[in-house]
Amino acid sequence: MRVGPARAGGEKQQHATACSRLGVERIDQGTADALTAAGFVDDERTDLRRRPVVFECGSDVEVSEADDFFADLGDHDPVADDCQAFEPCGDGVRLGRIAELTQQAGHIHRVCWVRVPDRQSHEGRVWAVLGEVLTAIVTPFKNDESIDYERFRELALYLVEHGSDGVVVAGTTGESPTLTDDERLELFRVAVDALAGRAAVVAGTGTYSTAHSVHLTEEAHAIGVDGFLVVTPYYNKPPQRGIVEHFRTIAAVSDKPIVVYNIPTRVVINIEPETMIRLAEIPTVKAVKQANDDLAQARRIVADTDLDLYAGDDNLLLRFLELGGIGVISVHAHIVGPQLKALIRAYREGDTAAAERIEQELAPSYELLQLQTNPIAIKAALNLLGHEVGGLRLPLVEADEGEVARVRDCLERLGTLSPAAV
């Protein structure tokens, strides 16, 4: 697949020089007519993770509005310049699909932030540059509580191959409170190296100290992560205007996207909708992980800002999609990643019944997450499934015998673990 300036003849050529256009060309076939090419882009089964993508647009590709879209496939085919060939799928939807495919192929930084209609009904929303399913990856430990970086690498690759568009490293699930700065940065390096552009690496760089957060963000930027997860400052309880200045100061040290992490149950204070509107004015603040089940607040984020809304609790995903959310930053994607992708795809395609059915099938997974403080239960589940992520660092402790039995029961009901022999 080649992404570059669209080429067209006659009147189209003149128009192409007057506006920014994106061209997509199949390079695995000598020629193909426009309908075949359009079908390639539209086909939901198209997967570019193992296909070559060649960029011919200088340093970046700018995906602009739908009326600036053009697809060019097969230079010598007369049908390729026929716009009628693209009527079966709206150009805006196809534009979003091209952005999705390009990011899927691992060129996250080569596609600029875009405003295009998405697959369902969220016209004008920002297409998610980081993806729809981001897994808040656990940090594996060895028996001596040192980090098992090789196991971490293997797990990151496994997640990307099983439904995740990216990983969030050193978040709450990654036990960030007990990681040293050196450990965090090494985890970022390993993730960037392992995924090598195939999927997004979002670095957890937020702390309750603005200066410390700035330092971690600068270091993570230099390592080459794709974005940052920045939590609301905890413990010191800043006023809402202090939260804005905290994010503004962090944003000043990198041009990469920031995901605001609003989790009032852990940090005591909530980022109010009016504050979220102010945060959205910061150019690199692009999304929010909303771990708050107040649907009215989520609705305001979608209505009053251009922020991509991610469900911050797994059980909020479908409700947030219904409000205009983009996806989920997930814990249980460790074990049900493909199901989450299927749920989102079903909803985007208008099959709400299928999305609701998948959500119901995931009930044991939601139950698993409530068994004990995160990430105790998910680590127990991963160990039962053979991923060998080890234990936890104090003050967190491993699941006890009763909790492990309940985790096992949840996995068996999910169908991911065979029942133990009697």
Task: Tell me briefly what this model is.
This protein is of the alpha/beta class and 422 residues long.
Q: What does the model show?
A:
The structure is a single chain. This protein has 422 residues and is of the alpha/beta class. It folds into two domains: 2-110, no CATH class; 133-359, Alpha-Beta Barrel (TIM Barrel), CATH 3.20.20. Helices cover 40% and strands 11% of the residues. It has helices spanning 10-18, 34-42, 91-104, 149-160, 181-195, 210-223, 240-251, 264-267, 273-279, 295-304, 317-323, 333-348, 352-361, 363-369, 376-384, 401-414; strands spanning 2-4, 23-25, 54-55, 133-136, 166-169, 200-204, 227-231, 258-262, 285-290, 308-311, 327-330. The strands form two sheets. The protein has an eight-stranded parallel β-barrel, surrounded by six helices. A three-stranded mixed beta sheet has the order 2-1-3, with no helix packed on it. Helix 6 (210-223) packs parallel to helix 7 and helix 14 packs antiparallel against helix 16.
Key terms for this structure?
alpha/beta; 422 residues; three-stranded mixed sheet
Any chance you could write out the topology, listing elements then pairs?
Elements: E1 2-4, H1 10-18, E2 23-25, H2 34-42, E3 54-55, H3 91-104, E4 133-136, H4 149-160, E5 166-169, H5 181-195, E6 200-204, H6 210-223, E7 227-231, H7 240-251, E8 258-262, H8 264-267, H9 273-279, E9 285-290, H10 295-304, E10 308-311, H11 317-323, E11 327-330, H12 333-348, H13 352-361, H14 363-369, H15 376-384, H16 401-414
Helix pairs in contact: 4-5, 5-6, 6-7, 12-13, 14-16, 15-16
